[in-house]
């Protein structure tokens, strides 16, 4: 579906470039950029496990877990944090977009920290390092 929509947008972009003025050309370019951005976002989301699978893995190996709730995304900051990363549509019935850091302890995950805005990479790394020093942490 993604490649079909990109092909259609590219065709429209090329066709409007020969007949359209600057306004239409800019609109076609914006539509193409939006389509590409959405395609990248879907590709990133598909590479992360869902919450239930990541929960089980975190409990098993003792690794902290960064949970992207409600479409929240900080892929660059979370990538090198040392924690597992997963997606959840909601946590405890709350769909508010946010990032939650949880640490395994005693066979369950304990809440450590929550961000409502995209944090800096250093803040994520520091929080993950701190939660690894908790009893039961990695």
| SSE string, helices as H and strands as E | HHHEHEEEH
| C-alpha Rg (nearest Å) | 20 Å
Percentage beta strand? 15-25%
Report the biggest beta sheet as strand number plus sense, adding barrel if it closes.
4 strands, mixed
Mean pLDDT: 77
Distance between the termini: 41 Å
Q: Specify the overall morphology.
A: elongated
Q: What is the count of DSSP helices, taking H or I runs of 4+ residues?
A: 5
Quantity of strands, as a count: 4
Order of neighbouring strands in the sheet with most strands: 2-1-3-4
Classify the secondary structure makeup into a structural class: alpha+beta
Total separate domains: 2
CATH homology superfamily name of the largest domain: Glutaredoxin
CATH hierarchy: architecture of the largest domain: 3-Layer(aba) Sandwich
Regarding CATH, which class of the largest domain?
Alpha Beta
Given as residue ranges, the uncertain stretches (5+ residues, pLDDT < 50) are none
Instruction: Summarize the amount of helix as a percent range.
Output: 40-55%
Q: The CATH topology of the largest domain, please?
A: Glutaredoxin
């Amino acid at each position: 579906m993604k490649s079909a929509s990109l092909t259609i947008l590219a065709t429209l972009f090329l066709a409007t470039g020969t007949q359209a003025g600057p306004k239409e050309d800019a609109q076609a370019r914006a539509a193409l950029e939006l389509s590409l951005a959405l395609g990248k976002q879907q590709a990133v989301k598909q590479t992360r496990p869902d919450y239930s699978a990541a929960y089980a893995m975190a409990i098993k190996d003792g690794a902290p877990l960064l949970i992207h709730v409600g479409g929240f995304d900080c892929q660059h900051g979370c990538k090198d944090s040392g924690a597992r990363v997963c997606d959840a549509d909601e946590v405890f019935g709350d769909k508010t977009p946010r990032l939650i850091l949880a640490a395994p302890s005693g066979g369950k995950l304990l809440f450590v920290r929550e961000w409502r805005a995209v944090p800096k990479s250093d803040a994520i790394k520091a929080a993950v390092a701190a939660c690894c020093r908790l009893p039961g942490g990695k």
